[in-house]
Design goal:
This protein is α+β, with helices and mostly antiparallel strands. About 25% of the residues lie in helices and about 40% in strands. The chain is built from 6 helices and 23 strands. Strands 3-12-15-14-13-16 form a 6-stranded antiparallel β-barrel. Helix 3 packs across helix 5 and helix 3 packs antiparallel against helix 6. It starts with a helix and ends with a strand.
Length: about 350
């Protein structure tokens, strides 16, 4: 046999062998798994029922505690602080006096103005006497216009304005709480000389707090004002606060996030700026729901094993919403079926299993 005949024989033999090695389908692969598993001992598994119920979907997020009202109070005038009872974390009521600025100089200015007002009043009355005969033939409007000019000429009008300005300055010397709340960032104390515009302290509404958090824009269609939520401070992981979704900011930031506010119902113990984890409960329409542990991935596809007469049955499924504990099954199994929730990573189709 020459080399060419030998080479052709090798090729023909290869073609014959390939014709007998056709690839197996996925069903044939499952059959092979059955054959391997048929003689093995039963695997102990836990069982749960698939239910047709409303899946409580949860939108998770994180953020910080913020007060509904906060204000940085600045001094409206210069002077020495005569009294100051402002302390950090001090609770105050609306219009309560927190500090006073010394007003001796204002009182002296007022005395001088009152003397000037007296003299100006006498000058006005003296000039008015000389105009009595002229005012008799005038209308009331014309007579009043003359009197205004005489008051201005005597300096009486200007002094009255100065007295009003002085009274306003005296009001500014008494620093009151604009709202009921708690003080923080206190920067002053009695005896200090302060300037107009100087920072005094901050006040916030301690009983009206909310969690300001960000959620994915893809979750926006699920959110509604009034939905129940829970807030958990990172500093107090064992404590959970009930909240209500109260506001949705209609803007999306550069990271595809939307800011929402969750009003805390009973915020005792929370402080502005605290970092929190939050979850918004989003009720959905009824669907077939199974524990999340029942779903495993095989070949990149979700699978649920059901329990039938001592055997594990392989079911490809289409999943929907997932709340971290339960998952929606859109297609693949029906309500009332028993699903395997443990040891389902190593079992195969028709593998013998035993309930724990």
């Amino acid at each position: 046999m020459n080399n060419t005949s030998g080479f052709l024989l090798v090729i023909i033999s290869g073609i014959f062998l390939l014709s007998n090695c056709t690839p197996t389908s996925s069903k044939d692969q499952e059959a092979n798994i059955v054959t391997v598993s048929a003689g093995t001992t039963s695997t102990r598994v836990t069982i749960a029922s698939s239910n047709f119920t409303t899946l409580a979907y949860i939108v998770h997020s994180s953020g910080r505690i913020q007060p509904h009202y906060t204000e940085l109070l600045l001094s409206e005038r210069s002077g020495q602080l005569l009294t100051c009872r402002a302390r950090n974390n001090q609770a105050v009521k609306k219009d309560e006096i927190i500090a006073t600025i010394e007003i001796t100089a204002l009182d002296l200015r007022r005395e001088k103005l009152l003397i000037q007002q007296y003299n100006a009043q006498k000058e006005y009355e003296s000039q008015l006497l000389g105009y009595e005969s002229l005012l008799k033939g005038k209308s009331s409007q014309e007579a009043e216009e003359v009197r205004k000019k005489l008051r201005a000429a005597a300096g009486l009008s200007g002094i009255e304005v100065e007295l009003k300005e002085l009274d306003y300055e005296k009001q500014q010397s008494t620093i009151r709480a604009p709202v009921s709340g708690v003080l923080s960032d206190v920067k002053v104390q009695a005896g200090m000389h302060i300037k107009a515009g100087q920072e005094l302290f901050r006040i916030h509404s301690a009983q009206d707090l909310y969690a300001e958090v960000k959620v994915l824009e893809s979750d926006l269609p699920l959110l509604r004002i009034g939905q129940n939520a829970e807030v958990q401070p990172l500093a107090m992981p064992a404590k959970t606060y009930a909240a209500t979704l109260s506001e949705i900011n209609p803007g999306v930031d550069a990271n595809g996030m939307i800011q929402v506010r969750l009003k805390i119902r009973s915020p005792a113990g929370l402080l502005p700026g605290m970092n929190v984890e939050a979850s918004v409960n989003v009720p959905q329409k009824k669907a077939v729901v199974v524990p999340k542990a029942a779903v495993v991935l095989r070949g990149g596809r979700p699978v649920v094993f059901t329990y039938e007469n001592g055997l594990a049955k392989w079911n490809y499924v289409t999943t929907g919403l997932d709340n971290g504990r339960e998952i929606e099954i859109v297609e693949g199994i029906k309500a009332g079926m028993e699903v395997i929730t443990s040891n389902n990573l190593q079992i195969s189709h028709d593998a013998p299993v035993k309930k724990q």
